[in-house]
Amino acid sequence: MNYKVKPYEIKHLDTAEEDSYYLLRLEDSGRQFKITEELKKVVPLLDGTRDISQIVKDLELKEKIKTNKKEIEDLIKDHLKPLGIFEGLNARKVDRMKMWFHINLIKGERLEFISKPFTFFFNKYILISLLSVFLAINTYLYFSKQLLFEGGSLDTKQIHFPLLVTMLIAMMLIHEFGHVVASFNFGLKPRFLGLGIYMFQPIIFTDTSDAWELKRGQRVVSDMAGIYFQLILGAVLSAWMLFFGVNLTLLIVSVINIAAIVLNLDPFLRSDGYWAVTDYIGINNAHEKTFSYVKNLMFRKILRKETNFQMPKLKPAARKFFIGYSFLYTFSIAFFTSLGVLYLFAVLKSSALNKNIDLMKSAYSQGNFADLGAAFTGLVIGQLVPLLFLGLIIIRIVKYMIKTIKKR
């Protein structure tokens, strides 16, 4: 059978691994795959005019690679066919977004007109100036007695809930707009802006998969662009409160904005901080590789059993970082899971669930919708979501342990 690869392009992939890797991108679907130097030499020969025997001959004559028909057949079967890169053959559908649910709202090219004028924000002098302004204003405000006093003395009835919800949605849009602007700044177009659900929360996201074509430094800037635009928003909110006085609604948005920035900097969840760290050190699929590395150590050191894990061929500095990151990643998962289990028992033992339900009933009967919203938020965020989340984590851990034991 003569295999023919769909229209594609191949670009060099900037990583910290010792071997060279490339990015194969299908022109029709935009799907991208990381391929080795060897595959880069084989793919052009799969043009539909050669059979396996001719490919073997051409590899030996043109590339000085000695192989045989069986090796090429296995390579096609095990590595290329599953990708769906051949005409007439489709790959198994894979959800690249790693979300529970998502829909695409706006195509990236439609955002170019409003994004291009803001690319000046990525001038290094403007960037440094804006970050300095943000730090200066917030340092003054959040550590001044005036803000602490005024913020603590304001009544919750002063919260303008429609404005609060609107600004929180705007905050998420501004974050994603930062990623969009960064893409256009580096000559790329984001694929789309979408809406999804991840970790029990609705999110707005931008598909910037084509950022893999950029150099590592540029990828880091693209990863952090959302946080950067949130910092700009934080500076505007703080400046407003500095000149016009503290407003409780704006203060809440400002605090949530800073909290969101901190959470997004988390290098262990699939957040902007995670992608920035892995792009900076040039390690692809860091979650899977770190987990496999730690699992391999446990089997070898504790169970005295060998696994098929192969350490990534990284440059010395990246290798050290990878090992340290693996242990920190494992410790963070164990630590926060333990805290979660303790919180789970604390919630079940306490009467917090009943108290929030009683507060909701009382607030509804009195027509106090501010207290009703606060009680409902406390019930959902404080009890129900953590319980459901921890329950799913425990189920996944048990299922994985059973699967591992059966394999052994």
From TrEMBL:
Name of the protein described by the UniProt record: Peptidase M50 domain-containing protein
Keyword terms, alphabetized: Membrane, Transmembrane, Transmembrane helix
Membrane-traversing stretches: 125-143, 163-188, 225-242, 248-265, 321-346, 374-398
Extent of the signal sequence: none
Protein source organism: marine sediment metagenome
Keyword check for Membrane: yes
Keyword Transmembrane: yes
